C-alpha cells in the first residue's frame, strides 16, 4: 500500500470522528482546540493498520450495529405506517363478520325451529351441528392455498384480497336470505347454509392467506439500525421486533373484531339469526370499502409468475438427490460438470430451505388447533348445560377476545420490553411452546367444569333432560355459567403466544416471493386440526366429552414439551434466517431520532 493510501485512510478516519452525531468541538482557555481522541491516534498506528475504525468510533445513527452492539444495546420497534393500520382495519371487519356469524352456527344448526326467536333453526342435534360447523372451520383453512397461489403467481396480494372480498360478500348474502323466517319455513335453510359456508370459506381463505403478509409488507426495513433516543440512550431499531409488534397489533385487531359476539347472540335471541347475519354483511361491506378507498396508501408487491411452481421443482430435485443443496445451480455444476439451466439461483434455494424449516415447525400446530376449536363448538354446548341467568350460552365466547385485548398491551408494553432490557431472549420457538402449554390448562379447566356440571342436578351427567324443563324449555344444571370464564381466558393467552408467533414465523421465514403461500401452509395446519376435531365428533356426547377434554389437555401439554426439545436450536438461528432476504427489498427510510418505543 502506498503512502498516499495510508494518508487517505487516516483522513477518512479523522472525518468519521469529526462527524459523530452530537459531538461538539472543545477549546482550551485561549480558544484553541483541545486534542480529541483521534489526535491521540498516531499517524504511525494508522499507517500500519493497528486501529480498528469500528472500535475507534461509535457506529453512527442509521448504520447497522456491530455484533457487540447487537448483544449489549436494547432492541426496539418502529412506528407502524398508516397503510399497516388500514390493513388491520380490513382484517378487523373480516373477523367481526367471521366470528359474529360462525359463533352462532352451533345454535343455528343444533336446535330446532320451534317458533321462538333465537332458539334454533335447523334441528340437527349436538353431533350434527358439531360436525358441520367443524367442516366449515376445516374448509376455511384449506382454501388459503388457493388464495395464496392466486396472489403469489397471478394477481398480487392486494388484488387477490379485493377479489375474495367480493366472493365473501356473495356468500354472506346467500346466508342472510336463506335464514329469514320465510326461507326457513319453506326448507331453504340447510341447503342455503351449505352453499353459503362453501362460498364464504373460499372468500375468507383467500383473504386470510394474503392479509397477514400484506400488513407486514407495509414495513420495509429489513436490517437493524442504530439510533439515539431523545433521552440519549443508544438503541437498535430491530425489524424483527417491529414485525413482532405488527402481528401483536394485527392480532389485537382480529380480537376487537371478534367482539361482534357481544351483539350477535342477543340479535339471534330477540330478533332472529337473519338480523345477526345481516349485521355481519353490512360490516364486511364497510371493510371492503376501506380496502378499495385506501388503495393508494398500500405498498403492493407484484406477483412473481411461476415462483410456487419453481419452489416445488426445487423440492423435487432435493428429494431425488437426497440433498438439500441439490437444487442449487452451483451444486449441479459441481456434480454434473456443467451448469444446469434452471430458472433460479442459489439464493432462491436457500430461501426454499428456510421455508421448509417453518413448515417443519408448523407440523405440530394441528394439536393446538384442535384445542382452540373447542371454544366455538363444545364450549358453547357446555355453556348451554349450565344456568345462564339471562346470558346466552354463545355469549361466553367473548371472554376469549377480551382476554387477548387485555393481555396484548400488557405483554407488548411491559413484559416484552422488560425482557429485552434484561437481555432475556424470548424467541418465537419459546413463545410457541408456552402457547401449547397454556392451551393445555384451558382443556384441563374445561374438564373440571364438565365434572362440576355432571355433579349437579337436576340432570347430572345427562344435562338438559326432561327433569330440567321449565315452560317447555330445557334448563341447565345448577351451575352458574360464569364458572366457564377461565377456560376462555386460558385459550386467549395461549393464542398470544402460539397463534401470533405462528403468523410472525410464517412471514419472517418465507421467501419474499412466497409470503402468501407459506402463510397458507401455516393456515392449513388449522384445517388438519379441524379434521382431527371432526374425527373426535363421535365422542362429543355426555358423559364421554369429559374424557375428550382430559385427552386434549394431555396431548397439548406433551406436544408443547416435545416441540421445544426438537426446535429450541432454531432460536439461536433466528437472526441468521431473518437476514436471508434483507437485500430483497428497497431500503427503508432513515431512522427518525424522535421515535421512541418501549
From TrEMBL:
Keywords: Membrane, Transmembrane, Transmembrane helix. It is found in: Membrane. Coiled coil: none annotated. The keyword Transmembrane applies. The chain crosses the membrane at residues 161-184, 190-216, 246-267, 273-294, 355-372, 402-419, 431-454, 487-508, 520-539, 545-567. SUPFAM superfamilies: MFS general substrate transporter. Residues 40-55 have a biased composition (Basic and acidic residues). It is a multi-pass membrane protein. Residues 16-70, 578-598 are annotated as: Disordered. Belongs to the major facilitator superfamily. Proton-dependent oligopeptide transporter (POT/PTR) (TC 2.A.17) family. This is Peptide transporter ptr2. The lineage of its organism: Eukaryota, Fungi, Dikarya, Ascomycota, Pezizomycotina. The gene is PTR2_2.
